[in-house]
């Protein structure tokens, strides 16, 4: 298989050309920036939590095809999930991307993400694929810290 076949499978191209959940959220629970200097990928992730649920996630990005597609797939996969489930989803995705051996099968709702498995053959690009996911974890952490701060303020 050629590099193009492998890297730019139809699903990836679709997400690259029509990224899901593009844009900004006014007054988000968290806004975090992610940068991958190796490739030049830059993204801003907006997160809206409703209690422990991801109510909305939006991304603005200037990145390569892998980065853009991965962010788009991530936003679809985690929307409406509880934070606990999101952490499992992120862990499953990372396990897949870091795995050296064979095909990994993800849960049905994450099927699209399997398209990114081809990226594993190009270690430099793995960071492109992981950036949106790591940025999401940062966003969740930042939102949760804010919630804690607010609780402390209320107690006072
Ligand atoms: Zn990249």
Gist?
This protein has 156 residues and is of the alpha+beta class. The protein is 49% helix and 17% strand. A hairpin with a 2-residue loop joins strand 2 and strand 3 (53-62).
Task: Give your account of this protein's structure.
The protein is of the alpha+beta class and 156 residues long. The chain is built from five helices and three strands. It has a three-stranded antiparallel beta sheet, with helices on one face. Strand 1 (30-36) and strand 2 (41-50) form a beta hairpin. Helix 4 runs antiparallel to helix 5 (123-155). It is globular, with a radius of gyration of 16 Å. The mean pLDDT is 89. The structure holds zinc ion. Zinc ion binds next to helix 3. Zinc ion (ZN) binds at residues 36, 39, 41, 63-64, 66-67, 128.
Draw up the topology in text.
Blueprint: H1 3-7, H2 10-17, E1 30-36, E2 41-50, E3 53-62, H3 65-78, H4 83-98, H5 123-155
Antiparallel strand pairs: 1-2, 2-3
Bound molecules: zinc ion.
Zinc ion binds next to helix 3.
Poorly predicted regions are none
Question: Rough shape?
Answer: globular
Number of helices: 5
Mean pLDDT: 89
The CATH class label is Alpha Beta
Largest sheet, strands/sense/barrel = 3 strands, antiparallel
User: Strand-and-helix sequence, N→C?
Assistant: HHEEEHHH
Please state the second-level CATH architecture: Alpha-Beta Complex
In helices, the fraction of residues equals: 40-55%
β-strand number? 3
Class by SSE composition:
alpha+beta
């Amino acid at each position: 298989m050629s590099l193009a076949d492998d890297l730019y499978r139809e699903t990836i191209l679709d997400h690259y050309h029509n990224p899901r959940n593009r844009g900004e959220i006014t007054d988000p629970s968290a806004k975090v920036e992610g940068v991958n200097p190796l490739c030049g990928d830059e993204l801003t992730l907006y997160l809206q939590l409703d209690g422990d649920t991801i109510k909305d996630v939006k991304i603005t990005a200037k990145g390569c095809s892998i980065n853009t597609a991965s962010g788009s797939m991530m936003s679809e996969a985690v929307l409406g999930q509880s934070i606990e489930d999101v952490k499992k989803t992120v862990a499953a995705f990372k396990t897949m991307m870091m795995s050296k051996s064979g095909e990994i099968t993800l849960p049905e709702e994450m099927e699209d993400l399997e398209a990114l498995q081809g990226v594993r053959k190009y270690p430099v690009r793995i960071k492109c694929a992981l950036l949106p996911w790591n940025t999401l974890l940062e966003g969740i952490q930042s939102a949760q810290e804010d919630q804690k701060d607010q609780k402390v303020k209320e107690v006072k």
